Amino acid sequence: MGKGFQGWVRQPSPDVLYDRQLVWLAFGLMLIGLVMVTSASFPISTRLTGEPFHFMVRHAIFLFLALCAAVVVVQIPLNRWMKHSMHLLLLSMFLLLVVLLVGHSVNGASRWIPLGLFNLQPAEVAKLSLFIFMSSYLVRKHDEVKTSFFGGFIKPIIVFGCLAVLLLAQPDLGTVVVMLVTLFGMLFIAGAKLKQFISLLLVGIGAVVLLILAEPYRIRRVTSFMNPFEDPFGSGYQLTQSLMAFGRGGLFGQGLGNSIQKLEYLPEAHTDFVFAVVGEELGFIGVTFVLLMIFALVYKALSIGKQSLESGHLFGGFLATSISIWFAFQTLVNVGAAAAIVPTKGLTLPLISYGGSSLIIMMTAVALLLRIDYERRVATLSLAAKPISEKKPQPEKTQQELDDNEKN
C-alpha cells in the first residue's frame, strides 16, 4: 500500500481530453457553498420549518440536480447548441412571459415559477440562452459585426432589448446589467469598431442611470450604499449588518459556525449575503481563498475561450469568453454589494449561494466549458495525426452550412 501510494503521488497524471483543474475548481466551490449555506441557514431554517438542516438538504438536492444536468450537457456536441440557439432564446422569452402571469412573488418581485421541488427562475435561463444565441450570431455574422453598425451591431442589441423589457417588468435590473456587460464584452472581442462600442456603452450606462432614477426603491438603494450608517435601522440596515460581519471576521475569522450576524440580524444570509458570513466565520484568509478559486475558474474559462478562438472554433470561443465575463462580473457585483462597494442587486455568488436555478444553470455553463475544451483538444489531436499536407485548418461552418448538411 505504501509503494502504491508513493507511485500515485509521484507519477504524473495521464493526458486527458478535458480540463481537470476546471472540474476540481467547480467541485471545490460547490462543496464550500454547501458548507457555508448549511452554516448560514441554521437560524432561519429552524424558525421557518423547525428543522435546522432544511435548507442544507434542499441545497444538496440542488447540487445533485446540477451535477445531473452537467453530465447530460457535457455529452451534447457544440454544433447542436449552435443550431438550436434561436429555439433556446425563444424558450427563455416564453418563460419570462409565463413568470409575469403565474410567477411566485417574493418581496414584491415576480421572478420564480413554482415547479414543486424548486422554483424556476427564468432570468437565469435567459442569461445562458442569450450568450449561446450571441455566440452563434457572432459566428454567422462575424464580418458584418466588424463592418456594419446597423446590420451587425444593432441587431443583437434589439434582441437584448426584448429580454430586458421582460426582465424589467419583474423587476430584475441586476440580471439586465449582467447581460448588458457580458454582451458588450462579446461584441468587443468579436471586433466591433471602437467608436461604435464606446458610443453604445455610453448609451447603456445612461439607460441604467435612467432606470435607477425611475424607481424610488432603486434610488434608496444607491443612497443607502453610499452611506449605510446614515440610516442603520432603515434603508442601510442590510449593509451595516454585512459590514459588521466582515469587521467581526478579522484576519482568521470567528470559526466555522460561530457567526453572530446569521442569527437573523443579516437578512438573506444564505443567499445574496452568504459572502458576508464567509467573511465573519473564515476571516480575510477564507474570503481571499474563495475569491482566488472563483477567479481561477474565470481564468480557466477565458483561457479556453482564447485557445478556441485561436484554433478557429469561433462558437466555442465566444461562448467560453461570455461565460468568463458573466461569472467574473456577477462575482464582483455580489461581493461588492456585501462589502457596500456597489448597490445591492440580488445576484448570487456563482456555485456558492443557495438557489436551485442559479446552481443548475451555472453548472450547465461549466459543463459547456468542458465540452468546448474537449472538442478543441480532439480537433487538435486529429490535426496532429494528419499528414503535413492536410493540416490546413478548416473554418467553422455557418448555421446555413450545418442546415444544408443535415438536409443532405
Question: Topology of this structure?
Answer:
Layout: H1 2-10, H2 20-49, H3 54-73, H4 78-83, H5 85-102, E1 104-106, E2 109-114, E3 119-120, H6 122-140, H7 142-147, H8 149-168, H9 173-189, H10 194-214, H11 216-226, H12 237-249, H13 274-310, H14 314-338, H15 356-385, H16 399-407
Antiparallel strand pairs: 1-2, 2-3
Helix pairs in contact: 2-3, 2-13, 3-15, 5-6, 5-8, 6-8, 6-9, 6-14, 6-15, 8-9, 9-10, 9-14, 10-11, 12-13, 13-14, 13-15, 14-15
Describe what this molecule looks like in 3D.
It is a single chain. With 408 residues, the protein is mostly helical. The chain has one domain (19-376). It has helices at 2-10, 20-49, 54-73, 78-83, 85-102, 122-140, 142-147, 149-168, 173-189, 194-214, 216-226, 237-249, 274-310, 314-338, 356-385, 399-407; strands at 104-106, 109-114, 119-120. It has a 3-stranded antiparallel beta sheet with strand order 1-2-3, covered by helices on one side. Strand 1 (104-106) and strand 2 form a beta hairpin. The mean pLDDT is 82. InterPro entries: FtsW, FtsW/RodA.
